[in-house]
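Complex 304.
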Amino acid sequence: MTSESSLRADIVEVGRRMYSRGYTASNDGNISVRLGADRLLMTPKSVCKGFMTPDMMCITDLDGKKLQGDRDPSSEMLMHLEVYRQRPDVRAVVHAHPPTATGFAVAGIPLDRAVLAEVVTTLGSIPIAEYATPSTSELPDAVRKYIKAHDGMLLANHGALTAGSDLFSAYYKMETIEHFAKISLVARLLGRENLIAREELLRLQELRGTYGIQAPAPICADVPMSDDPALCQVIQSPEGGGFRLVPDSTGPVPGLDGNRRREPPGGPGDPGGPGGPGKNDEAEIRLTYRELSALIEEAVKSLR
Ligand SMILES: [Zn+2]
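Predicted structure with zinc ion bound:
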């Protein structure tokens, strides 16, 4: 068991990193860790996370009653308590407002496409918990729906939340979410995202086991009769094998219903989009040798 003094020092360090990387501004964000079976060590409310000292932290029980500390616990304490209640395996929770990931949360676009192998193996999908007024009991209600099957999620019009088996694991997941959001944004600005094919996705899921990565839930397509975000992870990935180019499908998203799976243009339901016959027949596309070979191989297979 890590000592209380080193956990206090770790919270100070993680707060400093979050602030220096621009994941929080002013007094935003909060951090907590389990301190034994029935107590939590938590950042206090109304302090900048970049300038904390170890003595500032509060100790609470799992119902949120303050047991020790000169300051009051974080205003988002209820959200942290809910995560610990739902996930006995979780030992640390981090909340911040990293700008790119929060941009996706504001746009109502979940980070649920199979794009980067590292993200698939560590976090899987990153859904959006429905909007809730910060610091009220609405927020734990919104988080409850997704936390059983996800270690990281966006909070609609608010920020992001991550959980882990220790403080640095929870913090690194926050880094991964923001990094993934930046890469996704660049790919979408470039106008194209090549999704990892379904077969490869399943291989990556097996790797989770091989490398001892603790994922809270399997990918939904592999759970019979289940498409419930509370029980499994929805990840967009094209079926059929081979390497498929999937043009960007980021259009105006009505309302905040960003977790619903959308058919990308050019998919089976869109014969007029890129990839199908229609107005883009003349458009130039560039392929790597590997992509071209995979497409030719696929075409030859379908001729047989
Ligand atoms: Zn917040």
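The helical segments are 4-20, 77-86, 99-107, 117-122, 138-147, 167-190, 198-210, 289-303.
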